[in-house]
Amino acid sequence: MRDDEKNVGWQVTNTRGNIEFLSFEHIQKIIVNNWNDVFESIFQDQNKITLKLTELEIIRNAIAHTRTLSDEGIKRLEQYAQDVFNLANEID
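Now predict its structure.
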């Protein structure tokens, strides 16, 4: 996506770095690829965190394409965000 913006010949967005171009899919890959060295100590359960990111991606896509979330969508967004926070704070 960053390359797409570079190819138009003018600055499409103001960005501070590559991190602003990450999608939930990219974040999942980063977590999976660095699980043992970094993320296992943060989330403890790889399946749970990747599932939550998949669920959040569905909501993100709706918002990104200017669709209005339903009341249920808003509740799920809040719940999934809380779930990710809780996964990062679980103590064995």
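Residues 23-89 form one domain.
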